[in-house]
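A quick aside before the break. I want you to see a complete sequence-to-structure record at least once, exactly as it would be stored in a machine-readable document. Don't worry about memorizing anything.
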Amino acid sequence: QVHLEEAGGGLVQAGGSLRLSCAASGRSSTTGWFRQAPGKDREFVATSFRGSRTYYSDSVKDRFTISRDNAKNILFLQMNNLVPEDTAIYYCAADDRLIQSSLRRAAEYDYWGQGTQVTVSS
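That is the input. The structure line, written in tokens, reads:
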């Protein structure tokens, strides 16, 4: 069992930055971030696949950076140049059995945090 806890959300103006963190109680080979805006499905943001390769959605690529502090077992999401469309609840997710073709699908992840709200004002 893996417990995940996110932190770092908040209110920021468009063009600003935030850094989210996700502290994990156990280790998983793949950890990532998803987000869910009101009335929308949970969508893939970024993932660190098996601790080495990183993947991003097209909407955040070149603005967001995912990283892991393996010593402290913390996952980060650095978000720069934020836009109002980034407003959502951001969730940390983890799994040990994902294959590359599945890493963008929320249903494939076994463990989830409670989420942290990110609001970007225009």
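Two observations worth writing down. The CA atoms of residues 20 and 86 lie 13 Å apart. The first strand starts at residue 4 and ends at 7. We'll return to this after the break.
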